[in-house]
Amino acid sequence: MAEGPFGGAIGGPFDLMxxxxxxxSEADPxxxxxxxxxxxxxxxxxxxxxxxxxxxxxxxxxxxGLAVTPVLITIDPEHDTSETLARALPTFxxxxxxxxxxxxxxxxxxxxxxxxxxxxxxDPAGRPVFAHGSFVYLLDASGTVLxxxxxxxxxxxxxxxxxxxxKTSAAGG
Length: 173
Known about the structure:
This protein is of the alpha+beta class.
């Protein structure tokens, strides 16, 4: 576990369901490191920047020979169902994994990663608008947090950070 932005350990186990109805934990079943973000598919705020950026970052890392899995854990399970995530996430990257679950499982995941949410208001379409954490967490294949990054760093800088962690771990150190 890494040190959180506000102190204390960050990361830990979770048991959620992906957009295809398969159980998922913090470990990647394909054995890839993961880029993890807490948000929601119809967010017009930070998510509308971060989700496409995670797709671009995944492609940039692949071009350098590093396979990662982009993962979204929803903060809006009422609207981010398996079906809606399955439709929305491929627009950001074909390998994007969307995770949802019951209120208790999602709350446990948010607590482990120090993510707080607050409903700010309801938009004209009747959907809630949330304030929520905005870090992208880098997890190794087993789900251990290696670091977290604010998305304002940009694709090139985040790629440098991820490569630094992944190439160091591949070298055994």
